[in-house]
Amino acid sequence: MSKINYILYFLSGMIVGVFLVVPFLEWIGMPSFANILVYLFGELNEANKFVVSLFSVLLILLIIMIPIRKYKKTP
């Protein structure tokens, strides 16, 4: 697969996730990412703002790096 195909699949997956999966999960009663962060770390204050930001950035980087690694492994 070409790099363009990987980018298109990744972007289409993100769009489907944002516009179809998230409303469906809210409709069936699943908590949002913001609610999960509050459950894990409590209310946001200066002490845990760094931890929550770091957790969110690491999660986003993980989501972005998986397709890049898969692209580099394919012949």
Give a verbal description of the structure:
Helices cover 83% and strands 0% of the residues. The chain is mainly alpha-helical. The chain is flat and about 45 Å long. It has one domain.
In short:
This protein has helices spanning 3-27, 33-41, 46-73.
Features:
75 residues, mainly alpha, 3 helices, 83% helix, flat
Helices, strands, pairings?
Elements: H1 3-27, H2 33-41, H3 46-73
- Taken in chain order, the helices and strands follow as HHH
Number of domains: 1
Total DSSP E strands: 0
- Work out the helicity level: over 70%
Low-confidence stretches: none
Helix vs. strand class: mainly alpha
The DSSP helix count reads 3
Strand residue content: under 5%
Shape: flat
Q: Indicate the radius of gyration in whole angstroms.
A: 16 Å
What is the subunit arrangement here?
single chain
User: How far apart lie the N and C ends?
Assistant: 9 Å
Biggest β-sheet description: none
Mean pLDDT, rounded to whole units? Answer: 83
